Amino acid sequence: MSEGDSSTNQRPDGRAVDQLRTVTFKNNIAPYATGSTLIEWGDTRVICSATVEESVPRWMKMQNVEGGWLTAEYSMLPYSTLDRKRRDITKGKIDGRSQEIQRLIGRSMRAAVDLIKLGSRTIWIDCDVLQADGGTRTASVTGGYVALSLALAKLQADGLLDCNPVVSPVAAVSVGVVNGVSILDLPYVEDVAAEVDMNLVMNANGEFIELQGTGEKNTFSDGELATMLAHGRKGIAELLELQKAAIAEG
Ligand code: UDP
Fold this sequence. Notes:
Elements: E1 23-27, E2 35-41, E3 44-53, H1 58-62, E4 69-76, H2 88-91, H3 96-112, H4 115-118, E5 122-131, H5 136-157, E6 170-178, E7 181-184, H6 188-191, E8 196-203, E9 208-215, H7 222-249
Parallel strand pairs: 4-5
Antiparallel strand pairs: 1-2, 2-3, 3-5, 6-7, 6-8, 8-9
Helix pairs in contact: 3-5, 5-7
This protein binds uridine-5'-diphosphate.
The site of uridine-5'-diphosphate has 11 residues, from helix 5 and helix 6.
């Protein structure tokens, strides 16, 4: 099978190698949050919310760090997976994977805003997975940015913020290699079969915020990497447009 040949590559859901699953946003799903959206990305669904707290973490005050802060929490609801996933509170310890993912979401959101312009406040981005079918971290970043933008618009509408602190919109997508073919946006069935698994976080200037790439079962070549990045760029461009439309709806 030749690399990237969509005619010979049968994906389980019939998508082309560089085709995203359907992505939609249902805004204001959590009315008490400052901004919220339910991102539905194929069968992966994540509730993303942004809540504003009019104070900054202690370490910022102690170190006289100017501006605001943005941080994230991620969790999978017990019924989001086929086998019930026990809550961290029941297990008595924080899941390492969740911790890694929430740090990624936090870094991605901080890359989207000018923290000085945000002012002396903290924004919490909470991402709770309702249904997991691969790509929950990329859905969290992509939906988290929409929730954040809705919250920033509310702060401006309420006269609490006099300018938009967004530096550049941010979105994320997965790419990988399955059966020797580079593909975009892996659901669970492809994720478990992937020889290479990669997550891209990028901004609207086409710059990378984070690349998490692993040869799970195989090494990967320059050529495969280039194809994955090309698919990723295409996916990110489409996601940025979908985000823009969702934010405009308010
Ligand atoms: N998954 C699961 N239970 C877990 C962790 C993962 O069922 O405790 C599934 C879920 O469908 C998830 C997929 O495995 O989306 C891939 O997980 P990964 O850690 O690669 O993160 P993701 O692709 O969700 O960002």
